[in-house]
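Journal club side-thread
Mid-discussion, someone asked how the predicted structure for our own chain would compare to the paper's figures. Pasting it here so we can look after the session.
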Amino acid sequence: MLLRTDNSCWGIPVGAMEPGERLEETARRETLEETGLTIDNLYLLDVFSGPQLFYLYPDGNQVFNVTAVYIAPQVKGEILLGLEEHNRWKYYPLDNLPEDVSPPIKPILPKFIDSQKPLRRVIQHG
């Protein structure tokens, strides 16, 4: 997870689409810009929207996010943070995530965690 500089909460790589960009291209670009990591395969987890994704930014901007969330089973590279948006990173186990998760990410976490349960069973019984 990445520690955001605007609200001092933990989050994931996020960002807005550029004109003409496909969702997958946005996910790859934002991840590269924010972490230095490159992604090959992406799998759509879900698209999240609605009142639970309302967010009031520290600067006063208000948004209702529509968020396409992808799972990237493998990433390549070395983490190099773009320090204007994030100032720290840390891998957390899914059963011990930080309390101070960025509000727009919180509604996404239960579905992501649930999606990882079959994978954990395969790894444990491998």
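Post-session note: The chain has one domain: 2-125.
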